[in-house]
Specification:
125 residues, alpha/beta, 4-stranded mixed sheet, 4 helices, 4 strands, binds zinc ion
Length: 125
Amino acid sequence: MRCLACKALFRVKTSWDNLFIKKNYYLCDNCIIKYPAKYTYVAIPFDSLIHIFSVFDTSYDVNPISFILEREYLFKFISTKYNLKKVVFLYFDSFKEMMENKECINTLALLKRKIVVMLTYFSKY
Ligand SMILES: [Zn+2]
C-alpha cells in the first residue's frame, strides 16, 4: 500500500487476527506517529452554540484526505452524540476554510437549529 501522507510504500503484517478481514490502511507507521490524532471540542457562541469537533488541534502540511480513518472515528462519535437528522452537520477541512464560509454559517443561523461542525484541522491561523 502507499501512504497518502508521505507517499511511501508500506506493508501491513498479516496474522490470523486479520487474515480474513479486509481493512484499508491509509497511513504508514511513521506518519501515524508523526501526526497523532488529538481530538478536540470547542463550543463557539453564536445565536446558539456552534459545536466544533476536530481531529487535530493544529494544522499540518498534509492533505486532509490522508486522515480518513481518524475522521471516520470522529464522525461515528458525533453521530452517537447527536441525532444527525435534527442538527445541521457541516464538514470543513480547516477552521480557516470554515471562517471563510461565514455567509453559509450566517444563513444556517436563521434555521435556529443546533449546528455541529466537524473539522480535520482546528488551527485558527
Ligand atoms: Zn507515511
